[in-house]
Structures are given as C-alpha cells and as structure tokens.
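To: structure subgroup
Subject: Chain for Friday's discussion

All,

I'm putting the inputs and outputs inline so they're searchable in the archive.
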Amino acid sequence: MAKSRAKPRTLLRPGLLTLALALGWAAQHEPPAFTIGSVGVWVLGMVTTFILVRATLAFLGPLLAVCGALVERARQNQNAEAEP
C-alpha cells in the first residue's frame, strides 16, 4: 500500500491568497445601491478578479523559480572565476 505524503502547510497558499485579494477587490468596489443588475456586475467583477489573480500567481511562480536559478548560476560562475 502506498503512503501518501502530506504537504507541509504554509501560511500563504495560492487559493487563500487569491480568495483574499478577490474579496478585497469586492469590498473596495461595493455598489452604492444593491439592485439585481448591480449585484450581478459586482459578482462578475469579483469572479474576473479571482481568475486574473490566479493566472498571475500561476505565471509568477515559475518565473521566480527561473530568475532564482539564473541568479544562483551567476553566483556560482562568479565564485568559480574568483578562485585561483
């Protein structure tokens, strides 16, 4: 029987961060008067914000990993050139 590996729980999970930013947007852009139309537009705006934040986080994760690898490689090359 295969054992399942539990991921370590971190404070900033992408789903919670995305939800917090979408709800923050919704709180800042609350319509002055709630009608069926204004609530519909407001909810669609929150869903759009949720999707855009999720896409941005999905793009930034690998981008930061590549940038970190490039910095690490440059640091290793610099240390190799400094040694006699």
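Points worth raising on Friday:
The helical segments are 14-28, 36-82.
The first helix runs from residue 14 to 28.

D.
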